[in-house]
């Protein structure tokens, strides 16, 4: 019965892009900042906050989450583009982020963990492009950097003005996480 929570999430998030910091209610904290990729030109921030503005979207499925696998590599997600057109990120600049994720995968490890809590957002920015992975589950999640890179490379060019869009997101079928690509 996670269908209803996912629909609620989509109604809250898919209407227009939101900044990773706008997803927070109350206090927001950048826990760490580093630059990744071969050229160390992609800014990576881990952001936490008191509560998620979309947290009600998964509240009903919280009891099931403890029994679900924390590894969501390869998990399916539903893509949604932000309408109307105009103001999307440059797909070439988003590709720099995707390449940085692939570089990290080859040199640090394929899997990264975003812990559970009130809100856990892994945000990456390069020039006009910002993307983030949001863990809205009640448990920590492991995700593959190469999967994240593939989503960035798919969302950035496929949610542009030619599709009457300006960025987009992919929401996990079970509603525990999503990846968003938007203009910085």
UniProtKB/TrEMBL annotation:
<keyword id="KW-0732">Signal</keyword>
<feature type="signal peptide">
    <location>
        <begin position="1"/>
        <end position="15"/>
    </location>
</feature>
<protein>
    <recommendedName>
        <fullName>Cyanovirin-N domain-containing protein</fullName>
    </recommendedName>
</protein>
